[in-house]
Amino acid sequence: MRESVHTNVSLWSKGMVAVTAAQFFSAFGDNALLFATLALLKAEFYPDWSQPILQMVFVGAYIMFAPFVGQVADSFSKGRVMMFANGLKLLGAASICFGVNPFVGYLLVGIGAAAYSPAKYGILGELTTGDKLVKANGLMESSTIAAILLGSVAGGKLADWHVLAALAFCAVAYGGAVIANLFIPKLPAARPGQSWRFTPMTASFFSACRVLWRNGETRFSLMGTSLFWGAGVTLRFLLVLWVPVALGLTDNATPTYLNAMVAIGIVVGAGAAAKLVTLESVARCMPAGILIGVVVTFFSLQHALLPSYALLVLVGILGGFFVVPLNALLQERGKQTVGAGNAIAVQNLGENTAMLLMLGIFSLAIKAGVSVVGTGIGFGVLFALAIAGLWIWQRRR
């Protein structure tokens, strides 16, 4: 069943500007909150291996609510769903400020993020259409990465000054996202009238899973984006532990600067993908995915700051070029089959399952005493081999 939507082909319509602004503030809060909360764990002497557990709590919320959030996004105006989800994030950040266990507060933020994601990506197909969808995804990713760049640095720098101030600043950012959501046009629900009983909802979600995983194109997109984001979140925690070992620096800000280098690169890579890749030539992005693993392997061996910055910018460029076309492919094919909201919910399940597995393996490796440098090298090699295998499978298909 094809969605009935009202589209505006302009990338700078009122709706697209509001969505982009809301995404910036929301992603800014997400990234600042991560580093502020990590600083809180460090200040309260939590063990190193507990840091990935924080993110596992977050992605666990995605997995737990995956069968429901796609239907929520498609059953209501997506702009209002985004506003409600950002309100949950605001509540989670505020609760950490007021002394609630950081893992509990971060779980609330994760629930908000789980509800937010299908709506924020699904609405792109309602505001733009056709070839503009890849460009809209590039704009969304650029906004996200700018927020990662600024949010990560702000979170780390503020945490070095005062952890509570950093946490409060994150809550303010989420408040800004809620306000921006008010300016998104109230579009009609894509698929109203669906059952809200537990069994039909879960049956509908797993039916969408079967449809997307059985289709060659959408399966290719799901596997590629899952590997990418699983690796991306693991790299973020690898950097936090790698900096004091490889560079001898113990502040909170340096890992955020390194993450910012990746963010800068992704903006460039996303822009290149929007110009060079179409829905019909998505396979062009695959060599970039393989090179991500190769560059991460070389990065893990560095002991100086300047080459580390350069290599992480390159990782970001390759990452942006790799993931943007795969996202656009899934949104377009998903909109035609199971609904954009359901498609993104299925994607979230795959991506967050990959994150959970990779973070779990990373946490176990650190707890078992494997060196951070050795973990980084193994991580890069395995990622390159996984993307190469996916590319070979796609070409044979």
TrEMBL record:
The gene is lplT. It is found in: Cell membrane. Pfam families: MFS_1. It comes from the Bacteria. Catalyzes the facilitated diffusion of 2-acyl-glycero-3-phosphoethanolamine (2-acyl-GPE) into the cell. Belongs to the major facilitator superfamily. LplT (TC 2.A.1.42) family. Keywords: Cell inner membrane, Cell membrane, Lipid transport, Membrane, Transmembrane, Transmembrane helix, Transport. The keyword Transit peptide does not apply. The chain crosses the membrane at residues 21-41, 53-70, 90-116, 163-184, 225-245, 257-278, 285-303, 309-330, 342-366, 372-393. InterPro entries: LysoPLipid__transptr_LplT (IPR023727), MFS (IPR011701), MFS_trans_sf (IPR036259). Its main location: membrane. It comes from Pseudenterobacter timonensis. This is Lysophospholipid transporter LplT. The keyword Cell inner membrane applies. It is a multi-pass membrane protein.
